Amino acid sequence: MSPSPVYEATCTAPVNIAVVKYWGKRDTSLILPTNSSLSVTLSQDHLRSLTSARCITSGGADARDRLWLNGEEEEIKQGGRTERCLSEMRKMRKEFEASNSSLPRIADFPIHIASENNFPTAAGLASSASGLSALIATLSTLYALTPENGVSVSDLSRIARQGSGSACRSMFGGYVAWEMGLKDDGSDSVAVEVAPVEHWPDLHALILVVSDKKKGTPSTAGMQRTVATSALLQHRIKEVVPARMQRITTAIQKRDFDAFAEETMADSNQFHAVCLDTFPPIFYMNDVSRAVIQLVTELNRASVEKGEGVKAAYTYDAGPNAVLYVQEKDVKQVLELVLRYFPQTTESFPDPFNLGAKPASDVPQG
Ligand code: DP6
């Protein structure tokens, strides 16, 4: 008797950090955003999700979809985001099987999924982005729904988006836009590559972990409170973001760090202003976050005065942790300055001088 075949796949996907933030949905079920956004995908070396999926071919009591996150089993809720991603991928696999009689019929098998992050989950470090992106990358490998078989990365991003909005951007490495799209069915709300990592490889992201505690207001709930109550958000989505998307895309194309930094910091500031304009207000930054902003501002002021240009750009997501974008030539100086004013208090993160997180082109990986 020949052994039954094993259908399984493992992929990793990295975190992305937005420089033009996504904040607000016009459709909460399909996850369609109120504005386009743009991010840099980081290297997988330091912040990534690793996900394995296996088809359960044997039947029995275990023959149902199951999910483990960081070793703990999580319920896959009916109609929830994971279930939606699974059923969309299954649907595509079924169509593929229907069009190709030589393919094994695996679409209807239950799936067991195990995923782990190598960084604190839900601490404002975009864990949902890497997690859902890794899930879609893994299922696309398992089901052979790949560019060679006519399924583009943007097609996959449309499904990752339904798991978590920001996840669609982690499907690409380098510099990535999530185009909000105009259609009600979300078919044009996809991630697209703005530039590969090789285009501007000397841009580094320094992640200053101010706190690795779980954040107070989850993004999903926070952004809808903003949509419901903030007048400033309407100004942002209509008047500010469309022009900023164009300017920052040009800055990336020209590798113009000063312009990139200006737009990045302005957008982070406006995102947190919009959170403050929400009722009840949402506070993601703390005193340390604000002190980091002051330090970067002072560093840039002194540097520009000397004719040396901008040294660092800060940005903050839905938590107090700072991400600083810095050019390679300035990494040492900026790190030394940060460590002088904010000495490390924890051993749990490795020596920052050996880190140098970089945008990555090699994502997602099988
Ligand atoms: C502040 O993608 O986590 O990081 O779509 O509800 O899952 P859901 O939200 P999520 O929100 C990310 C918000 C942000 C900004 C960004 O990454 O663009």
UniProtKB/TrEMBL annotation:
Protein name per UniProt: Diphosphomevalonate decarboxylase
GO cellular component: cytosol
Pathways involved: Isoprenoid biosynthesis; isopentenyl diphosphate biosynthesis via mevalonate pathway; isopentenyl diphosphate from (R)-mevalonate: step 3/3
Keyword check for Phosphoprotein: no
UniProt xrefs under NCBIfam families: mevDPdecarb
A Gene Ontology biological process term: sterol biosynthetic process
Entry-linked Gene3D superfamilies: 3.30.230.10, GHMP kinase, C-terminal domain
Domain (Diphosphomevalonate decarboxylase-like N-terminal) ranges: 13-191
Keyword check for Ligase: no
Record-stated family: Belongs to the diphosphomevalonate decarboxylase family.
Organism the protein comes from: Rhodotorula toruloides
Enzyme nomenclature, EC number: 4.1.1.33
